[in-house]
TrEMBL record:
Taxonomy of the source species: Bacteria, Bacillati, Bacillota, Bacilli, Lactobacillales
Family indicated by similarity: Belongs to the binding-protein-dependent transport system permease family.
One example of a Gene Ontology biological process annotation: transmembrane transport
Organism: Enterococcus casseliflavus EC20
CDD domains associated with the record: TM_PBP2
Protein name as catalogued: ABC transmembrane type-1 domain-containing protein
Domain ABC transmembrane type-1: start-end pairs: 67-280
Cellular component GO terms held in the UniProt record: plasma membrane
TM helices/strands, residue ranges: 12-35, 71-93, 105-125, 153-172, 259-279
Bilayer topology: Multi-pass membrane protein
Cell location: Cell membrane
Keywords in alphabetical order: Cell membrane, Membrane, Transmembrane, Transmembrane helix, Transport
Amino acid sequence: MSTLQKNKWPLLFTGASIILFIIFFLIPALLGLYYSLTDYKGFATANFIGLANYQELFQDASFYKALFRTFRYVIILVPSIYVVSLAVALMLNSQLAKGKFFAKIIFFLPWTISGIIAGVIWKWLFGENFGFINFILEQAGQQTVPWFTDSNAAFSVIILAAIWGGTAFNMLQFTAALKNIPRSLYEAAEIDGASFGHKLRYITLPMLRPTSFMVILLASIGAMKEFALVQSLTNGGPGTDNMLIVQYIYTTGFDKMRVGYASAASMVLFVILLLLGLAQMKIGGGKNDI
């Protein structure tokens, strides 16, 4: 049997992956890079203008506001998702927990819902004039909250909705990792009289380090690229107070018809995500041999 025949299936599947990568990532990326150097408006001719889009972008206050707003979103969301996901996984992994099967279904359901649908659900819950939360507050004799006309309140709703939607996938990762921790470690700790906090600190968290690294990396990248949830929930409002970087790119490219300028912003976002991934791999990658 020839080498080609022996390796035909690996080559077939690898080749399919490479083709998909070229079609859906490499070609769009190269087109985006090309458009970022032009004045393309989505129609007509794309005229080459060099680095003019980048020069304008780095002087655009709206771009910096959207970018730093996204950083704030990531800094708040990622630790929150980590803590909530780990807490849920620990509860589901506990021998004292009852109804684990139904609990897993309940916690997993949000992950099956698209960001657009999730935004509609949370918009119904927190609607100022028709929302369920304000209805409960009224019935309790409390003052209603202007959830979507106050920028801080709207940002809080976005964070809550993102945690709700992002917990399921990370919870599953932690649940699988917890099952791989040898039970003998906990039994030895219990014999020594270790508390739950000590077992969490000295056994669980160190053993979960590779999973923690992956959860933080994927959650950070996902938060930086957040679009559907925010778009359907607040549309970046009130005004542009909660417009994140991907919404800025979308608005610039499709509403203002400045595809070249939006492509330049996309390239900057790509570099930021690349640096973010490399930095997290540098910090956490070398410690994943536990």
